[in-house]
Every structure is written in structure tokens, then in C-alpha cells.
Design a protein that fits this description.
Number of helices: 1
Order of helices and strands: HEEEE
Number of strands: 4
Structural class: alpha/beta
Distance between the termini: 46 Å
Radius of gyration: 14 Å
Helix content: 10-25%
Amino acid sequence: SEAPQESKKEGGFREARCLLLSYKNILKIDGLIGFDKLVKLQLDNNIIEKIENLGHLTSLEWLDLSFNNISQISGLDSLVNLTNIS
């Protein structure tokens, strides 16, 4: 009976709609595979240099990349639901 509980825990993050990762000294956007239902992603106040690995997050409506080291905004074309970016 442990297996169903275990798979339930593993799938829990896949249902996440909001991820707050401010002030985490993140250098690279990575590790978001499986978070396809994310609507809000907060990555402000990190040390990110490049916008990457976000193309699969097509449900994303709100993205905060403010106060990072990003010099060029690109790679957001597939985020068709994105209405708020900072």
C-alpha cells in the first residue's frame, strides 16, 4: 500500500500553480520540467543571466525576472498565456 502514496507524493508538485523562488542565488533557470501547470513564477532578485528552459510552461500567466543579470529578453514566444512580465 506504500506505492500509491509514494506516487501521489511524486505527482503533487506537478499540480503546483505558483512557484516563488526570490532571493535564492539562482544562476540558471533549470529543473522546471513537470511544472506544466504553473501560472505564476517568481524568480526576482537572483543572478540569472539568460532566459531559458521556460518554453514548456505554456500555462504561465505571470513571470517575474526583475533584479537579475539578464541583458536580453528572448525565449518567451511559446508562452502564449503570459500577460504579466517584470
